[in-house]
Design goal:
41% of the residues lie in helices and 13% in strands. The protein is of the alpha/beta class and 669 residues long. It folds into 3 domains: 6-309, Rossmann fold (3-Layer(aba) Sandwich), CATH 3.40.50.970; 346-530, Rossmann fold, CATH 3.40.50.970; 543-668, 3-Layer(aba) Sandwich (Rossmann fold). It starts with 5 loop residues before the first helix and ends with a helix.
């Protein structure tokens, strides 16, 4: 057999990527072959000549992170994982693309496939996640590196497409990345001018390069991304040489490169080529191999990544051993954080309260708790979407994370809720123990819902701090008063939604949130002051619902409240007891945690025999009938709010002791 020249070997490797994608999509009769076919050259250069990773230890800490923001082209990434020797993607998994139970789902999923860093698919999320990954690297490098020992030193590389650049979230995140000067972030823009609807000239004609220059990015261009591997390499080298700005490399490619009839058309974007076009493409590119066959020369070359990866990790291990000998305290802290172990006794700083303590808003309790935790959990990092003084989320022990001040922990996201959410997900998925939080008003969860949903899907343990949680916020009116928001958030699988009633419950919510590294938590907090309740507890929050006040014997009626309405239920219960009724008050700060308790505990709180129940929450009734049943009722809000002082709005909507008592009596009949 003839010895392959360097050029022919590179072509073999690139076409191996292309045809693994073509064949997998064809077998599945579903997928997006066009991007892998066009982006294969840049991906090959990046993975073969630049990226530092270890296929046999995908979680090696100092690996470069790769994000395929254009996640629909995921066969590009799966092909690279197989070719470079990741055990998570053997050839059989390539053949099972998009099938039940496979490790090669229709978009990359970090929790499903080792080697995938973040879950992408919704366009723009990946590049925004990458900003979070780069923030994590910059922060850890500033915190742990020493002049004579760099233990944190890796890049975040991204391949994104036209769709990512159209989505607003990418603009939010990339604008912040430019401001922060994240020089270890390098994005390769697959500039193929095609989206699902056709040529991008019908909707997207801006100069993306100039936009990114305006963001503060270093922008380069490769005019022939189909064939000019040297230009791609030179561009990446130039990007790495610029250390004070993130870099965008605009790589002009042809979607579906090699397909005689479908290249450079929308037809190759999101559908299999078809039997005939696969045959024509094989002929056109001189690919003589059967489906899923990779020539030995190509596989042998790509598998050199295994040896390189072992060498990279061994070199880093040696560096870390020297670091550990010189800086044992810092090394111990680094190892603790990487292992995801919280500091010993951290929970002892959680504030506790009695009814004698002055009542304040739960957003204030959040501030107190967050600042107590910040003193003992140095991996806590986060901030607000330009609402710091309303959300009360500033960590007073730290300065602002800014360019040249990456050791600080207060992130200033600006008015960028969606970008903030995706960035926090990236920080969480850096897998270095960092615990990110992002804050805004509860109603603006709608501005970041895709990122919140993805945090739950991707098992990213971010903490979402949401204040101004009901109509009680008052004068700003219905645009700012969340009504349906809680119900819609509770519908998201794997998301813990907390609405704490007082200081103890706020501490309890943070305790669960800090401990939950595989599921995100959202805290809905009040603007108005709340009394500290006699029966509230940190422990009760972990059960999702618990009894805060009770009568002797079997109750006649159970009042169920959340947040600011629990105190209302307690006061109404006192009135009802004075009239001879047996009343139980249940606080339900987290419906999902209660649903996860065993049947015996659920029965102890909400016995099936007690069918008279009343749920009280200053939000939509949607979802509450699961708990009150056919014989129960709710005091809720099933219309938009109104502009008025908070206490007036609450009174007019029926959130008074007298109305809760009247409703309870009606339920009792």
């Amino acid at each position: 057999m003839a010895v392959a020249t360097k050029k022919s070997l590179e072509e073999l490797c690139i076409n191996s990527i292309r045809f693994l994608a073509i064949d997998a999509v064809e077998k599945a009769k579903s997928g997006h072959p066009g991007l892998p076919m066009g982006a294969a050259p840049m991906a090959f250069v990046l993975w073969d000549r630049f990226m530092r990773f270890n296929p046999k230890n995908p979680q090696w800490f100092n690996r470069d992170r790769f994000v395929l923001s254009a996640g629909h082209g995921c066969m590009l990434q799966y092909a690279l994982l197989y070719l470079t020797g990741y055990d998570s993607v053997p050839l059989e998994e390539i053949k099972q693309f998009r099938q039940w139970g496979s490790k090669t789902p229709g978009h990359p999923e970090n929790f499903e496939t080792e080697g995938v860093e973040v879950t992408t698919g919704p366009l723009g999320q990946g590049i925004a996640n990458a900003v979070g990954l780069a923030i994590a690297e910059a922060h850890l490098a500033a915190k742990f590196n020493k002049p004579d020992a760099k233990i944190v030193d890796h890049y975040t590389y991204v391949i994104l497409g036209d769709g990512c650049n159209m989505e607003g979230v990418s603009g939010e995140a990339c604008s912040l990345a430019g401001h922060l000067g994240l020089g270890k972030l390098i994005a390769l823009y697959d500039d193929n001018h095609i989206s699902i609807d056709g040529d991008t000239s019908i909707s997207f004609t801006e100069d993306v390069g100039k936009r990114f220059e305006a963001y503060g990015w270093h922008v380069l261009e490769v005019k022939d991304g189909n064939n000019d591997l040297a230009a791609i390499q030179q561009a990446i080298e130039a990007a790495k040489a610029v250390t004070d700005k993130p870099s965008m490399i605009k790589v002009r490619t042809t979607i579906g490169y090699g397909s005689p009839n479908k290249a450079n058309t929308a037809g190759v974007h999101g559908a299999a080529l078809g039997k005939d076009e696969v045959k024509f493409t094989r002929e056109n590119l001189g690919w003589e191999y059967e489906p899923f066959v990779v020539p030995d020369d190509a596989l042998s070359h790509m598998r050199k990544a295994v040896e390189r990866g072992a060498s990279y990790e061994a070199e880093w291990n040696s560096t870390f051993a020297q670091y550990k000998a010189k800086y044992p305290a810092e090394a111990a802290e680094f190892e603790r954080q990487l292992a995801g172990k919280l500091p010993e006794g951290w929970e002892k700083v959680l504030p506790t309260y009695t009814p004698a303590d002055k009542g304040v808003a739960s957003r204030k309790h959040s501030e107190i708790t967050l600042n107590a935790l910040a003193t003992v959990i140095p991996e806590l990092i986060g901030g607000s979407a330009d609402l710091t003084h309303s959300n009360l989320t500033l960590m007073k022990v730290s300065g602002d994370f800014q360019k040249g001040q990456y050791h600080n922990r207060n992130l200033r996201f600006g008015v960028r809720e969606h970008g903030m959410g995706a960035i926090c997900n990236g920080i969480a998925l850096h897998n270095s123990g960092l615990i990110p939080y992002g804050a805004t008003f509860l109603v603006f969860a709608d501005y970041m819902r895709p990122a919140i949903r993805l945090s739950a899907l991707a098992e990213a343990g971010a903490i979402w701090v949401m204040t101004h949680d009901s109509i009680a916020l008052g004068e700003d009116g219905p645009t700012h008063q969340p009504v349906e928001t809680l119900a819609s958030l509770r519908a998201i699988p794997n998301l813990l939604v907390f609405r704490p009633a007082d200081g103890n419950e706020t501490s309890g919510a943070y305790k669960v949130a800090i401990e939950s590294r595989k599921r995100p938590s959202l805290l809905a907090l009040t603007r108005q002051n709340l009394p500290n309740l006699a029966g509230s507890s940190i422990e009760g929050v972990s059960k999702g619902a618990y009894i805060v006040a009770d009568s002797d014997g079997t109750p006649d009626i159970i009042l169920i409240g959340t947040g600011s309405e629990v105190a209302l239920c307690v006061d109404a219960a006192e009135k009802l007891r004075a009239e001879g009724k047996k009343v139980r008050v249940v606080s339900m700060p987290c419906t999902r945690l209660f649903d996860e308790q065993d049947a015996a505990y659920q029965e102890s709180v909400l016995p099936k025999a007690v069918t008279k129940r009343l749920a009280v929450e200053a939000a939509s009734s949607y979802g509450w009938h699961r708990y009150v049943g056919s014989e129960g009722d709710t005091v809720t809000v099933d219309r938009f709010g109104v502009s008025a002082p908070g206490e007036v709005a609450m009174e007019k909507f029926g959130f008074t002791v007298d109305n809760v008592v009247a409703k309870a009596k009606a339920v009792l009949g």
